[in-house]
């Protein structure tokens, strides 16, 4: 099994594991949890299954970083180092969010996770030697959507409930991981993925 395959699998496990743990935590939340109206962190701060949500944050952050290191290897080129650094910022942010359920450190972790993750989409799509133009265009669109949702979240936009903006800024990262993992797993060649 190639490093590329292992890395892509790590990304899929991180995202799918996160979404499953989030759904299980949300199902036990009282009163009823709303994906649109509640913050994601509400699941890790309160509720009978808060430890599951805390684990979800840590799982996603660590699997995103581990998968990236498997795919990229030892980053030599500047673009690759930037990509790995942004994914590492996302991982640190997720782990902070998962281990510190509220307060300023939690907010700093959320900022690292959301800004680092969406910036990693741009850096990763530019750094990874992917053959198709649609992939780069889709990646830029996903990152733009993530950053737009983050701006609307921070700006306290009331056009949609707060949970929509927060999930848009977080789920954009998950979507990119799944799209990129699918592209990597579909490649028929055995060549190691290189960074440009």
From TrEMBL:
Residue stretches spanning the membrane: 7-32, 52-73, 80-98, 104-128, 140-162, 168-186
Keyword Transmembrane helix set for record: yes
InterPro entries with a match to the protein in the record: DUF998
This protein's UniProt keywords: Membrane, Transmembrane, Transmembrane helix
Annotated source species: Mycobacterium gordonae
UniProt name for this protein: DUF998 domain-containing protein
């Amino acid at each position: 099994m190639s490093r590329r395959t292992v890395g892509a699998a790590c990304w899929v496990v991180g995202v799918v594991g996160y979404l499953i743990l989030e759904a299980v935590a949300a199902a036990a939340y009282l009163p009823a949890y709303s994906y649109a109206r509640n913050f994601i962190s509400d699941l890790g701060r309160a509720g009978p299954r808060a430890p599951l949500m805390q684990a979800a944050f840590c799982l996603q952050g660590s699997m995103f970083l581990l998968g990236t290191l498997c795919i990229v290897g030892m980053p030599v080129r500047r673009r690759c180092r930037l990509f790995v650094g942004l994914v590492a910022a996302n991982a640190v942010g997720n782990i902070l969010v998962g281990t510190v359920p509220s307060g300023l450190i939690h907010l700093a972790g959320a900022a690292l996770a959301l800004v680092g993750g969406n910036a990693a989409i741009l850096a990763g799509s530019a750094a990874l030697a992917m053959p198709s133009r649609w992939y780069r265009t889709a990646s830029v669109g996903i990152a733009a959507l993530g950053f737009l949702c983050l701006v609307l979240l921070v700006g306290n936009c009331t056009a949609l409930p707060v949970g929509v903006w927060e999930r848009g800024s977080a789920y954009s990262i998950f979507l990119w991981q799944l799209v990129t993992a699918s592209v990597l797993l579909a490649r028929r060649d055995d060549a190691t993925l290189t960074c440009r």
